[in-house]
TrEMBL record:
Name this protein carries in UniProt: CD2 protein
GO cellular component, one term: membrane
PANTHER family assigned to the protein according to its UniProt record, in alphabetical order: LYMPHOCYTE FUNCTION-ASSOCIATED ANTIGEN 3, SIGNALING LYMPHOCYTIC ACTIVATION MOLECULE
Record's keyword terms, sorted: Glycoprotein, Membrane, Signal
Record localization: Membrane
Domain Immunoglobulin: 7-100
Length: 177
């Protein structure tokens, strides 16, 4: 029996589609996915997959072992184990999935520091977010939670938009300058 332990902590957001990062190259005869030791999906060669309990009608199991869950819910959090048989050996992969509420809408605040207008973008979330600023007269986007503009350039800018992204979720807010 070959045991592959991969206690990966995976993060998904409520409402998203989530696929476990499984890449099995060899031909598989049987697949069983469990969540907290309860069966959630089973597949045997020549048969269509069977889904149980919470994953019924909202998941897809492919013959390469990949399990996708649609419309993630908080109670999808848990320890998932993939057990597959390749006609010679049993293999086990373990994943820990944590489903979080999406980040809050970003809030933009501003202050004047010397000759600069400093914009600050904040959002409530328990993990690091990716922050991007976009200005109405500038084709480039700027990374970072804080963004500084020389005051003499402010009139030409008109609007600034802050976008936050995490996983597949993006939210943005706009301020008129």
């Amino acid at each position: 029996v070959a045991h592959i332990r991969s206690e990966d902590m995976l993060i998904g957001l409520v409402g998203e589609t989530f696929t476990f990062p499984v890449e099995i190259k060899q031909r598989i005869e049987e697949i069983t996915w469990t969540k907290n030791k309860d069966k959630v999906a089973v597949w045997e060669r020549q048969n269509t997959p069977t889904y149980f309990t919470s994953l019924e009608n909202r998941s897809v199991l492919k013959d390469n072992g990949c399990l996708t869950i649609f419309g993630l819910e908080k109670n999808d959090s848990g320890t998932y184990e993939l057990h597959y048989w390749d006609s010679r050996n049993d293999h086990y992969l373990t994943f820990v999935l944590s489903v979080l509420d999406p980040p809050s809408e970003p809030k933009i605040s501003w202050s004047i520091e010397g000759d600069n207008l400093v914009l600050n973008c904040t959002s409530n979330f328990q993990m690091p977010l990716n922050y991007t600023w976009k200005l109405s007269n500038d084709p480039h986007s700027h990374q970072g939670q804080e963004f500084s503009i020389p005051i003499e350039n402010v009139d030409a800018m008109k609007k600034a938009t802050c976008s936050i992204t995490f996983s597949q979720t993006e939210k943005s807010s706009e301020i008129s300058l």
